[in-house]
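Quick one: structure tokens for this chain, please?
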Amino acid sequence: MKPFPLFTTTALLLLAAISSNGSAGWSTDLTKAQAQARAEGKAVLVNFTGSDWCGWCMKLRKDVFLKPAFTNYAQTNLVLVEVDFPKRKPLTPTAQKANQKLAQQYQVQGFPTLVLIDSTGNRLGNVNYANGGPKSFITEVEKLLRPPSDIPQPKPAVRKPAAPKRVQPSTAASQTNRADLVLSKIVSSKKKRQAVINDAVLSAGQSATIKVGNERVKILVVEVRERSAIVSIQGQREKRELRLATGI
């Protein structure tokens, strides 16, 4: 047998190095992923995403999933599953139906939504993440995988409690949320209108939890008009009108 040319051997070594430092492998079959998790003693991380249109999803992939720190952690602790809802990338009707069923099962209301389940299929919870890269994301996963034990701690000395401070979270939240919530599009059909608010597509009466800066904000769409949407933020009685930018 003739030996490989030097340049071919070098190319193979380079490809191996790239593969070892690339993103962890993502499955699209949750059933097979659960079987693998049981066999390997791992948990399953399910990523509900809009891979080719959701800005937060793309940022999460770039800032976390493509980093070697996450790849190394996932190889030891997780089996990864992607449940995609793309707008341009084609999916088979079977895949679309299966993904929609999973979204309903796990009550997905916006993207990205990250659900952690154990090897037997029990839901451990949603992974909350805003910013901070792989280290911050892994910390949130660990909180669900290995929560603090409930060992009783010694009772501290009794002290007279200080007078509680009055906090008005609804006012502060409304000021922040109003500025960061963006109505980018009104989608109309024969039956109804839908509002595209940040990365969530909602009809009147529907609600979603949306990432705004370092927070997760729950909004309810009260009414979708021709060029605006009336929303309730964090369950407040006061309603807000989000308007389309001029020229859209």
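Residues 1-23, 169-177 have pLDDT under 50 and may be disordered.
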